[in-house]
Amino acid sequence: MAAVLAGVGSLIAVSGLEFAAHMSHTPYWQIPFITSIALVMGLPKVEAAQPRALIGGHVVCALVGYGLLWLFGSSPWVAAVGVGLAVFVTLRLKVFHPPAAVNPFLIVNESLPIEFLFSTILVGAVLLAGFAFVWSRLSWFVERRMPATVTEGAGVWRARLNALLKRKVAE
Q: Which end of the chain is more exposed for a tag (fewer CB within 10 A), N or C?
């Protein structure tokens, strides 16, 4: 049943995305979010599918792209550096969302205007996070809640803190 819900949720989300792209005459509207939809609908409990990673990852990756575009201009090599740097930065900031790594690639290669960040990246990420949240609540009969519960998150942080404390004591 979870696979059916993931498929139907993806179908609805991509259809909405296509409609928005068609209405806004913005061909790049869909590209950053197709794989995000697959991740968020298919694996809603993984850390990379949480709203913090979804929104933060897309915004940070876009900012990396714009920073490099501003500093070095448009070139395939700058785009490649942008993807690598975006992955590094999002991992360090704990907002890693793999599909967002396409943002610097698109921004640098296509010299996209800064409006793309606000009108597409930010709006799209927030709308997708909202849709995923509502969809997970509508599918209450399958254990697929998103975002992960606070206690799940606290358990992860508690485990990290304990590991860090053990390492410090051993030193």
A: C
